[in-house]
Write a structure and sequence with these properties.
Blueprint: H1 3-19, E1 27-30, E2 36-38, H2 39-56, E3 59-63, E4 67-71, E5 76-84, H3 86-90, E6 97-104, E7 116-121, E8 127-131, E9 134-138, E10 151-154, H4 162-171, E11 177-179, H5 184-193, E12 198-201, E13 206-207, H6 208-221, E14 224-227, E15 233-234, E16 245-246, E17 249-252, H7 255-264
Parallel strand pairs: 3-5, 10-11, 10-12
Antiparallel strand pairs: 1-2, 3-4, 5-6, 6-7, 7-8, 8-9, 12-17, 13-16, 14-15, 14-17
Helix pairs in contact: 1-2, 4-7, 5-6
């Protein structure tokens, strides 16, 4: 089975579990990032990890719920968030996803090394798959819009997080709509498709497990992504071989949108 075929199969196993009547929403502890873990989060990661390890054997698996696990003599690194949008999922709000990326293993591997990635919607049978430099969309005939929708996506839980947003609105020649939807992976992919023009998150709460697959897919579609907490770094240089916070992330439909985003984010310090 091809790498992308294996990944789709493993993701479908997770989706079947999440669609079943046997899931539990009980809190079972905290994950390595300090967030609450629910039973369905842990079980979804167990299903995904077992399926991938059974197929690839020699793997470093980095998951949101259990951190780093090493199997055999690593040839691959897998970084995953089996339920991105757990709060939405728990509340039956249909905006959540399964996010997984795979790269040949090396110390210091980054998103640029990702060879295969998938972001799959949980509440409908739609998946976005990056493989060998191309993106294929399963479950829809959607193509990238020539002009992005006038929508800005992101997370604005704190008053300070609105500051770059207000700057960005002042720089735009269009009337923009703001949405905070609850699954960063899906938000970023949607920017890549042109269903929104930008994504902003300066809360210092994102982790690489949340966004690696989505960034690989969105940038392959033509989007631009920047990690912006200490100076500016191409988001494709975010490490994937260790868990890491992504303190400030901006994703733009194209370079013209990115220019305004960077002006809005100038001197921005991520929340600590």
């Amino acid at each position: 089975m091809s790498l992308d075929g294996m990944l789709i199969n493993c993701v479908n196993n997770v989706r079947k579990y999440l669609e079943s009547s046997s899931i539990s929403f009980d809190v079972v502890g905290y994950n390595p990032f300090g967030d609450v873990s629910k039973r369905f989060d842990v079980e979804a990661e167990n299903i995904l990890r077992k399926c991938i390890v059974d197929s690839l054997k020699d793997v470093v698996f980095i998951g949101e719920e259990e951190g780093v696990n090493i199997y055999g003599n690593p040839k691959w690194v897998v970084i995953a968030d089996p339920v991105d949008g757990s709060t939405n999922f728990s509340s039956d709000i249909p905006w959540a996803s399964i996010s997984v990326a795979i790269a040949p293993y090396r110390r210091g591997a980054t998103i640029k090394d990702v060879s295969t990635a998938i972001v799959a919607e949980i509440f409908r049978s739609r998946a976005y798959v990056f493989n060998n430099g191309f993106v294929k969309i399963y479950g829809a005939s959607e193509e990238r819009k020539k002009i992005p929708a006038p929508i800005v996506l992101g997370y604005f839980e704190f008053l300070e997080a609105f500051t770059p947003l207000l700057r960005y609105l002042s720089l735009s020649s269009r009337r923009l709509t703001i949405r905070s939807l609850g699954s960063a992976a899906l938000d970023i992919v949607y920017v890549g498709l042109g269903n929104a023009e930008a994504f902003i998150d300066v809360r210092a709460k994102l982790r690489n497990v949340d966004v690696v697959a989505a960034i690989r897919i969105a940038t392959a579609l033509g989007a631009k992504a920047v990690e912006c907490s200490n100076g500016l770094r191409d988001a494709l240089d975010i490490p994937i071989d260790v868990p890491e916070k992504v303190k400030c992330l901006a994703v733009a439909y194209d370079n013209s949108v990115l220019d305004n985003l960077l002006k809005a984010l100038s001197n921005q310090k991520a929340m600590q």
